[in-house]
Design goal:
seven-stranded mixed beta sheet; 9 helices; 42% helix; transferase
Length: 243
């Protein structure tokens, strides 16, 4: 059954994107791989196309949420004429060969047991200090929905088309996963975590990695502020103290 489209948001991933695309093509039922080149300065788009992916390019970096929306819209257009829309499997660009292990994410969605699955990596990846962002997201989801996920920021997710459309518009940047979980649970969609042996690039500790984590924290906090008045109040007081 060919019923899965793999969507891979990517920025400056020319060194890993070919391996990720080729591994994604091996997933059962995945007959379409779409790479969204989100304003890369390297050859990400060209390498992905040569590996067999359909490539959509943003002329400038617009963030992960926008890249996910662009990829899903590309799949919608390619689904025209199909009896049923494909399920949407989102994978990070740096999974490389481990992307072929993502099949367990699809199975509950295909079977009708879940509307969205979230990966919990069984392979330990060095977090490099971004645990505070995970805690912020996890606690925010718990406050908003009563559910406490193990991997709230994991971008490896499979959704039905109906679930994805119900969450539009997606939150900006790195707040997309946190907001997606809250918005779907609040609407009564079924969300499950699934253990998978995937692994992405370990997070570093240099200034670039710290800047990345700062952006993650900002985006997650903004996503929560729009969904939790208590968070919005705390952010407002923090901004006031800086003036």
């Amino acid at each position: 059954m060919q019923d899965v489209a793999v969507i891979i948001p990517a920025k400056d991933e020319a060194d890993r994107i070919a391996a990720t695309v080729k591994a994604a093509q091996e997933l059962p039922g995945a007959d379409l791989v779409v790479v969204v080149d989100d304003g890369s300065a390297d050859a990400t788009g060209r390498v992905a196309r040569e590996a067999g992916a359909r490539v959509v390019r943003h002329s400038r970096n617009r963030g992960k949420g926008a890249a996910m929306e662009t990829g899903a819209e590309a799949v919608r257009l390619l689904d025209d004429g199909r009896d049923q829309p494909r399920h949407l499997l989102f994978l990070d660009a740096d999974l490389a060969e481990t992307a072929r292990e993502a099949a367990p994410l699809v199975e509950p969605v295909r079977a009708g047991d879940a509307d969205m699955t979230i990966a919990v990596f069984t392979t330990t990846v060095k977090l490099g200090g971004h645990g505070f962002v995970v805690r912020l997201s996890r606690e925010g989801i718990r406050r908003a929905t009563g559910w406490e996920p193990d991997a709230p920021l994991n971008g490896q997710r499979c959704l039905t088309r109906a679930a994805f459309d119900a969450a539009l518009p997606l939150a900006a940047g790195f707040g997309v996963e946190t907001a997606l979980t809250i918005d779907l649970l609040r609407q009564g969609f079924r969300v499950r975590e699934v253990e998978v042996p995937l692994a992405h690039r370990a997070t570093g500790t240099d200034w670039r990695a710290q800047l990345h984590r700062g952006r993650q924290f900002r985006d997650v906090a903004r996503a929560l502020a729009g969904r939790d008045p208590a968070v919005a109040g705390r952010l407002g007081r923090l901004r006031g103290s800086r003036q």
